[in-house]
């Protein structure tokens, strides 16, 4: 394991800082506060992400005497130019704006030894038409480039071959596993879904559950219906502010409520140990989404069940995802054996550590 790998794995454990912390901490460590020049550049695809990243980075840099600046489109260019002329050592930017500043000769990059591309798959997509190649031309020969990507499309691979020498790859996806999760499907009509969910709630021994819908609107609607049925239910979706989402997730994790309805916003598997039932109220179209929703990271490998509500329109996706992931999704039986998902409460003497003694 090299130092990046350690940093990334550590930060994956601290949910709210997560990936941003994984690269910000080592980047900040390598900044020489005595040098009055831009030493690291972090590029992200959206303004929101740039602001969010800079907040974390500024917080982490608070006691380091390192100056961090964020610059994105949609803000006053002249203000940014003024700020860059003061001592700035780390810049967080969206691609268009930083190129603009480079071309004007304002952002001087000849001492910038680290480039981080966050959400590299988006940055290297058609949306940004080769802008990153231009950014790299402005960097010194000796530099380190770090790519963070949820997926690994051809564009990222090509970019790697072109600009990275003998790169070190860390794949956290491998750790997401379906082991220990028994997967079922129930064939239903769209209008039967809520009824079916209600039946599941009454039959299953749910410790905590997460229920996935495919849109913000459906998340809110379903959460409302579940509440009306008399079950405690939280929801989170992508349109809620990050701070609000974090609070709901925190409360859910603390066990204040049994059920959580959400859209696809966990970037990697659910790491709430108390969740023993995951329900795909809307079945996803992509295998990757399915794996993110249902998969568990290896370190928690414990028991659970996943139940997929499948409509007529989902039938092909079901088989495709099953094949792509090399897994089996079985028809739901009348009775589900509790041994598959209900943890038996262990005595202290019964824990694996105690047994190993
Ligand atoms: C979400 O699921 C509903 C019901 O299956 C479907 O009508 C709708 O088109 C889906 N929306 C998206 C964005 O896939
Ligand atoms: C059940 O969930 C609660 C929180 O809701 C948690 O404290 C407890 O450990 C969970 N039990 C099991 C067996 O996972």
From TrEMBL:
Q: Which residues form the Helicase ATP-binding domain?
A: 18-170
Q: Please give the catalytic activity noted in the UniProt record.
A: ATP + H2O = ADP + phosphate + H(+)
Fetch the InterPro entries from UniProt.
DEAD/DEAH_box_helicase_dom, Helicase_ATP-bd, Helicase_C-like, P-loop_NTPase, RNA-helicase_DEAD-box_CS
Keyword Cytoplasm part of the UniProt annotation: yes
* Gene3D superfamilies according to UniProt: P-loop containing nucleotide triphosphate hydrolases
Which Gene Ontology terms cover its molecular function? ATP binding; hydrolase activity; RNA binding; RNA helicase activity
Query: What is any one GO biological process for this UniProt entry?
Result: P-body assembly
- List the record's Gene Ontology CC terms alphabetically: cytoplasm
Against Pfam families, the record matches this protein to: DEAD, Helicase_C
Location within or outside the cell: Cytoplasm
Domain Helicase C-terminal positions:
180-340
Q: Does the keyword ATP-binding apply?
A: yes
Q: Which SMART domains match?
A: DEXDc (SM00487), HELICc (SM00490)
Instruction: Specify the enzyme's EC class, one word.
Output: hydrolase
Enumerate the UniProt keywords alphabetically. ATP-binding, Cytoplasm, Helicase, Hydrolase, Nucleotide-binding, RNA-binding
Provide the E.C. number(s) assigned to this enzyme: 3.6.4.13
- Family of the protein in this entry: Belongs to the DEAD box helicase family. DDX6/DHH1 subfamily.
> Which PANTHER family did the record assign?
DEAD-BOX ATP-DEPENDENT RNA HELICASE 50 (PTHR47960)
Q: What is this protein called?
A: RNA helicase
Organism, scientific name: Tenebrio molitor (Yellow mealworm beetle)
Taxonomic lineage of the native organism? Eukaryota, Metazoa, Ecdysozoa, Arthropoda, Hexapoda
């Amino acid at each position: 394991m090299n130092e990046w790998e350690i940093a990334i794995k550590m930060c994956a454990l601290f949910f709210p800082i997560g990936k941003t912390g994984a690269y910000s901490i080592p980047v900040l460590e390598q900044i020489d506060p005595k040098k009055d020049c831009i030493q690291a550049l972090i590029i992200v695809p959206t303004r929101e992400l740039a602001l969010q990243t800079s907040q974390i980075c500024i917080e982490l840099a608070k006691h380091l005497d390192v100056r961090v600046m964020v610059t994105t489109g949609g803000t006053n260019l002249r203000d940014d130019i003024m700020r860059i002329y003061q001592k700035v050592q780390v810049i967080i930017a969206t691609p268009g704006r930083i190129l603009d500043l480079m071309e004007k000769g304002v952002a001087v990059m000849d001492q910038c030894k680290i480039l981080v591309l966050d959400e590299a798959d988006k940055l290297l997509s058609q949306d940004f038409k080769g802008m990153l190649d231009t950014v790299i031309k402005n960097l010194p020969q000796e530099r380190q480039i770090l790519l963070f990507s949820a997926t690994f499309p051809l564009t990222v691979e090509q970019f790697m071959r072109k600009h990275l020498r003998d790169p070190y790859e860390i794949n956290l996806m491998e750790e997401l596993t379906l082991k220990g999760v028994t997967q079922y499907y129930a064939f239903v009509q769209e209008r039967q879904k809520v009824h079916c969910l209600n039946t599941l709630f009454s039959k299953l021994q749910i410790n905590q559950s997460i229920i996935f819908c495919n849109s913000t609107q459906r998340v809110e609607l379903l959460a409302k219906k579940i509440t009306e049925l008399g079950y405690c239910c939280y929801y989170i979706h992508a349109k809620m502010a990050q701070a609000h989402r974090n609070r709901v997730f925190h409360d859910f994790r603390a066990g204040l409520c049994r059920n959580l309805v959400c859209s696809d916003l966990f970037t990697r598997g659910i790491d709430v140990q108390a969740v023993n039932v995951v329900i795909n109220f809307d079945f996803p179209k992509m295998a990757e989404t399915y794996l993110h929703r249902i998969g568990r990271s290896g370190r928690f490998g414990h028991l659970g069940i996943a139940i997929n509500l499948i409509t007529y329109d989902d039938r092909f996706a079901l088989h495709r995802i099953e094949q792509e992931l090399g897994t089996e999704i079985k028809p739901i039986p009348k009775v589900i054996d509790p041994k598959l998902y209900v943890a038996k409460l262990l005595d202290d003497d019964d824990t694996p550590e105690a047994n190993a003694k």
